Structures are given as structure tokens and as C-alpha cells.
Amino acid sequence: MIDKLVVIGVGLIGGSVALTLKKAGYVKTVIGVGRNSLNLERAMEVGAIDDISDINSPVEGASVVLIATPVLQNHNVLQKLSWAVDQGVVITDAGSTKRDFVRSVKTLYPKSFSKIVPGHPIAGAERVGVEAANDELFRDKMVILTPFPKTDKDALSTVENLWKVCGAKLSKLPVERHDSIFSSVSHLPHVLAFALVEMISRKNGQDNLFEYSGGGFRDFTRIAGSSSEMWRDICLANKDLIVNDLEEYQTVLSELKRNIVSADEDKVLGFFESAREARQEHLIKKKND
Questions:
Q1: Could you tell me the mean pLDDT of each successive run of 10 residues in the chain, 289 residues long?
Q2: In CATH terms, is domain 2-173 a member of 3.30.70.20?
Q3: Is the Cα torsion angle 88, 92, 98, 104 positive or negative in sign?
Q4: What count of Cα atoms within 13 Å lies in the side-chain half-sphere of residue 259?
Q5: All structural domains of the chain with their residue ranges
Q6: Is 204 exposed, middle or buried, given 0-12, 13-18 or 19+ CB atoms closer than 10 A?
């Protein structure tokens, strides 16, 4: 049971955590902190939070702090949580990149970060803000934790239980491996979706190409409706790995382009069959798991 949860960034993720824990009766009070007063007021209206506080003000009696802001805000937010670190409050986050978060923690609190537990829920939607929050968002979704070697066991257990109550499945990864994996399977796909929409929009002339798009275009580009600020921050925070993945992707595209230009039927077919089989194997394995 969490007595008082402080959510910094009451949007899709932060709002969904609050709603889920409140519905489960696992938290007594949720305090919302954020830049947008209208969003915080709306969060109170929908029952996601019980009260509003300011980022610069300590929250008396806080048990857990969840940081759910765009990742480039992490350092500034952590800097203003010295009161929580001093009081031994458990702090966790929900960012898609972990190296930058860990660097900030070690820089700001080199001797007192045992109760800070980095985390990343693999859940989201193209809609943003507390209006998009729901109490089923994390059901059967994966949450990755990247604890420090000397993370306090009780703090880790607190964060694990928080996500279990949300219905999530927990996994742990080293920080470097986390950022490498999610550069490939999450960050790169979002970049590609945004890039495709931008390319089509630039080609629009007399004909509005979007009007002729079908389900394939809709499915491929759904994630391009996500928060542009969030994805800008992710790209900058994880830029070295994302750039490497973009270069590998361009190599694969160049290979396919050469085969199409040369009208090599077997190579084009083989390229598509190889990708299709890899995807099918993944889906079968995931189903069996």
C-alpha cells in the first residue's frame, strides 16, 4: 500500500498509473505535479489525482515519486527532488531511455541514490495527456527495470509491486543493453513512422495523398500521432544508438533498392520472404511464451 504517491507529469503514463493504483485501492493519495495547470485541473476532475503541488515544493509525507515527463526534463526534475532523496523517498521514472537518467542520478546524488529505481513501461498510445489515461493501459504489458547494483531491496520491491498492481510483467536489463534494444525496436520505428508521414506531406500537391491511403498506411503511421516533444527528447537522449540503427536501416533499404532497380525477382522475393518468416517466428514464439 502506498500512502502518498507524487506523479510528476500527469499525462498518458503518469495518469494511467494513478488511475490504476487508485482503482485497485493501492494508494491513499496522489499528488500531481506538472507544467500545465489546466491538465492538472483536468486530472483532478477525472480522479487521477487528489491534489496539486509545485515542482519546487517538498511534498510532506510522500512515499513514492514517479517521474513521467519527457526524458530531457529528467535532470531538471531530479535536481529539484533533493528533498525526496534526503528523506529516503522511493523515486522511479517511466522514461524510454535510461543512460541519461542514470547519468543524472549519479551526477546529482553520487552517494545517496540507493532508493532511485529507473524504470520503463512498454505501453503507450498515439494519444497524449491525462485525457488519454486509462486504468488498463499496463495490463499484461512489460515493464523494464534497470536497478543499480546497490539499489535498496525494499525500494526495488516497492517499485516492483507498484507495477504488478498495474497488471504489468516485470523484467530487468542492464542500462546499456536497455537503450540499445529499444533504439532498434521502439525508437527507430517511431522515427520511421514520423519520416514517412513527413515525406508524404511534402509530396502533396494537387492530390492529397493522405485521402488515398488505406489500412496499411494507417497501421504503419499510427505511432506518428505520439507526442512530438517526447520523441524529440528520446532521439536526442539516445542519439548515438538511434543514428547507428538509422544507418543500418539505410543499408538494408539500399540493398532492396538495388534489387528492385535491377529487377531481380528472386532477390526481391527472398528479401520479403526472409522478413516475413522472421516476423512469423517471433509471433509464434511470443504466443507460446
A1: 97 96 98 93 95 95 97 97 97 98 98 97 82 94 96 98 98 98 98 96 84 93 93 97 98 98 98 96 86
A2: no
A3: negative
A4: 15
A5: 2-173, 177-288
A6: exposed
